[in-house]
Design a protein that fits this description.
By secondary structure, the protein is an alpha/beta fold. The chain contains twelve helices and twelve strands.
């Protein structure tokens, strides 16, 4: 919502303190933001696999919608859908990974508020709320899984790269949050961490194929409708795509098919900011909120260091968040009203 402000978001604990608390716990609940992406899923699965190997009881609770190709990488690691049931009351620790925003934690937020005293957080985003009593945040990290690597090593967890291994889960987050090492955040440290994980047997080609090359035909139909809708604004530097409920119904697509669609206009040289506004068909009982995805490019060659749009700040205007060049938000309004609000935020 306009005027939304996040609380001061900074570390309240060190990596060592988080590791010590996990060592002490016997039964741990693990969760992350709704509609988990590669870093969220990879972080949750890596923690569950590591803690289980340590002889602890650990349960993962996730909120959809779920991208089938990504979720297939959970392999034999079980997880619970919060839509089918909340965690119980017998946990002595809970940990939130890859988010610090209450807006991204529905519908598990009530449980987390009730168990705030035992909740930990590990995140690499720059904005968030007071969602965890002890939290370790490093916004310079390429991914949350990049933070978990030294955390788990400090706990003497063996990083194994086989299918279903801890290292494989860690690599998923590292690769996807860096755009398969194309983005600015893929720095020397990120490549060093990747080399470490590849060195213990992670199969990069297998993961890429599963995550990036197993989309449904409906995905292409939805992409076609998104591309047809493009409006070029501000001299062609901003590309705006819109997908309304009719587009989902005509294409047979779903919100799970949208991953990466906002990136399509970024291949145009003049485009510095890409926006995707989408609203899927209503259910029998509710009207879905309008979702807005933002992507921006780093400064152009020869441009000033601040010659770009920080979409994390832009998304925060609507209660959302993310990263400097990739962020999103939900707006509880119809798609036309949401479009007007987004354009107003851009001073159009």
């Amino acid at each position: 919502m306009p005027g939304f402000r996040m609380s001061t978001y900074q570390s309240t604990a060190s990596m060592t303190q988080i590791a010590d608390r996990l060592r002490q716990a016997k039964r741990i609940m693990i969760t992350t933001h709704a509609k988990p992406d590669g870093d969220a899923l990879g972080s949750a699965m890596a923690l569950r696999r590591a803690l289980t190997a340590m002889g602890k009881s650990a349960d993962v609770f996730l909120a959809g919608p779920f991208e089938p190709s990504l979720m297939s990488l959970a392999e034999s690691t079980p997880y619970h859908d919060v839509a089918k049931g909340m965690p119980g009351t017998d946990y002595d620790a809970a940990i939130i990974v890859d988010t610090g925003a209450w807006t991204q934690l529905d519908p598990i937020a009530p449980w987390l508020r009730a168990h705030a005293a035992i909740t930990l957080g590990v995140d690499h985003h720059a904005r968030g709320n007071d969602v965890a009593s002890l939290r370790w945040i490093d916004s310079t990290a390429v991914s949350t899984t990049a933070l978990l690597i030294p955390l788990l090593e400090s706990m003497d967890v063996k990083l194994t790269g086989e299918i279903g291994g801890v290292a494989e889960a860690l690599f998923i987050g590292l690769a996807t949050d860096s755009g398969w090492f194309r983005h600015d955040n893929a720095d020397a440290k990120a490549f060093s961490l990747a080399a470490k994980l590849l060195g213990v047997g992670v199969n990069k080609s297998r993961l890429y194929q599963i995550i990036e090359e197993t989309h449904r035909p409906q995905r292409l139909a939805l992409e076609a409708r998104a591309l047809t809708s493009i409006e070029y604004l501000r001299g062609g530097t901003v590309a705006l795509q819109t997908l309304c409920p009719d587009d989902f119904e005509a294409s047979g697509g779903s919100p799970e098919d949208l991953t990466g669609v906002v990136n399509l206009p970024m291949s145009i040289g003049a485009v510095r900011l890409s926006i995707l506004i989408s609203q899927s068909p209503p259910t029998a009982t509710t009207t879905n909120p309008t979702k807005v995805s933002f992507r921006s490019k780093p400064p152009p060659p020869g441009g000033a260091a601040d010659d770009f749009i920080d979409v994390n700040k832009l998304a925060a205007t609507f209660g959302g968040g993310g990263h400097v060049h990739a962020a999103g938000a939900k707006i509880n309004a119809g798609i036309d009203e949401a479009r007007t609000m987004v354009l107003a935020a851009l001073d159009f």
